[in-house]
Amino acid sequence: MTIMFVWHYATIKKYEFDLHNKVSLEWLLALGPSLGVARVPGIGLVFTDLTSGIPANFSRFVTNLPAYHRILVFVCVKSVPVPFVPPAERYLVGRVGPAAHRSYRCIVRYGYRDVHQDIDSFETELVARLADFIRYDWHRSQHTSPYAEDEASHSNESSSERRLAVIGTVTFSGTPGYGIEESVEPASVSIGFSTVESVTDVIEMQAVGAGAVERRVRFAIDDDDSESDGQTKMYVQLEEELRDLMTAQEAGTAFILGHTHVEAKQGSSILKRLAINFGYNFLRRNCRGPDVALKVPPISLLEVGMVYVV
Question: Would you call 193 helix, strand, or coil by DSSP?
Answer without folding.
Answer: coil
